[in-house]
Design goal:
This protein has helices at residues 5-11, 76-79, 83-101, 104-111, 123-129, 143-151, 204-207, 236-245, 257-265, 273-286, 296-303, 324-336, and strands spanning 22-24, 33-35, 39-44, 50-55, 62-66, 113-114, 117-118, 136-140, 152-155, 160-163, 170-176, 194-196, 210-214, 228-233, 270-272, 306-308, 338-339. With 346 residues, it is of the alpha+beta class. The chain has one domain.
Length: 346
């Protein structure tokens, strides 16, 4: 008999967080000491950019919840079987990334420096968290966040997440240990396929304590080293409790103009020459290990893509903050929440 999600939590020995408890990373006080408090934690990446982890400082394991098990666990780009659909999706994603670059808060974050280092703004990660097709899967260091996605499904009819109402169905929780997949994704990426998204100038990634796993064509998440699969039995009262704990989804998906921008991008068919070229390059990179021929002229004809002089996706008609003074004040409030530790390498 499958456990329910509460019983699975106990079996996995998920600790309570935000208690202030000190944690000795190597098991004794002589090693590094951290705590279980969630916040924003600064880390310098391999390129010297500052990334802000959202959640606890060290997440030794990460989770991905789904309301049901699918035959394959693959990113949205892999779910598009036709190369024409992949190309159109990539054009839309490039257009979305261009548009969010015009958001005043994104523009400010890309110009600002923390401790004399640039802040990493992950436009691709933002596209992922606003529903555009990418080569990434979401994971999180917060088990409760994963539980929300394990018990709540998007309702196209209601336009929001709804809890699973059945006691008969089963869901799935995946667990991955990033340290065991570093440098083992068949690429030259030294940090491995698990990447920090964390705090971004638009709200969703921070709320979801966001990390992503970058995938390759045809690659199944369950085939990665260290990935474990745990099935559980849905219970409606547990699903409703979790749904309400996250304000019926609004805590993870706060209302913001970028969500409407993403909705507009989903039906976009007009792109600039630059956007089409960049989408072509990404498609070539994505299909590099396959034998799928790419004829972008034919693809454009099939998909109805047209070329325009100016970007068609923009913030027109959407309410966004434009005051540089207020935006800088908002950013100062973010910086005040950042925790960091000094480290030396040699």
């Amino acid at each position: 008999m499958l456990p329910n999600l509460d019983e699975l939590r106990d079996r996995l020995a998920i600790p309570t967080i935000n208690t202030g408890r000190q944690i000795y990373l190597f098991g004794h006080p002589a090693g590094p000491v951290t705590d279980d408090l969630e916040g924003l934690h600064a880390i310098a990446d391999e390129n010297g950019c500052i990334r802000l982890i959202s959640g606890t400082e060290f997440s030794m394991q990460m989770y991905r919840g789904q309301t049901q098990m699918y035959p394959r666990c693959v990113p949205t780009l892999s779910r598009l079987e036709k190369v024409e659909d992949q190309f159109l999706a990539l054009c839309r994603r490039v257009a979305f990334e261009d548009a969010i670059g015009e958001h005043p808060m994104v523009s400010l974050a890309e110009r600002i420096r923390l401790w004399d280092s640039p802040l990493y703004v992950d436009r691709e990660g933002l596209a992922q968290h606003y529903g555009l097709a990418t080569d990434m899967l979401d994971v999180t260091g917060n088990f409760d966040v994963a539980c929300f996605f394990a018990t709540c499904a998007w309702s196209h009819e209601d336009g929001r997440y709804r809890p699973v109402a059945s006691d008969e169905a089963s869901g799935v929780m995946y667990r991955i240990t990033p340290a065991f997949v570093t440098g083992r994704n068949g690429t030259d990426d030294a940090v491995g396929p698990v990447h920090i998204v964390g705090w971004q100038p638009l709200p969703r990634p921070e709320q979801q304590r966001a990390f992503v796993v970058k995938m390759k064509p045809g690659q199944d998440f369950t085939s990665l080293p260290s990935v474990e699969t745990f099935h559980f039995q849905h219970q409606a009262h547990i699903s409703h409790r979790i749904w309400n704990a996250f304000d019926q989804g609004k805590a993870l998906f706060p209302t913001d103009a970028a969500a409407e921008l993403a909705r507009r991008a989903e039906s976009l068919n007009e792109f600039t020459e630059s956007q089409i070229e960049r989408a072509s390059q990404r498609l070539a990179e994505w299909t590099a290990e396959t034998d799928v021929p790419i004829d972008t002229v034919r693809i454009r004809t099939i998909t109805g893509i047209t070329m325009t002089e100016a970007p068609q996706l923009n913030w027109s008609g959407l309410v966004i903050e434009t005051s540089e003074e207020r935006l800088r004040e908002q950013f100062r409030e973010v910086v005040d929440r950042v925790r960091f530790r000094m480290a030396a390498y040699g």
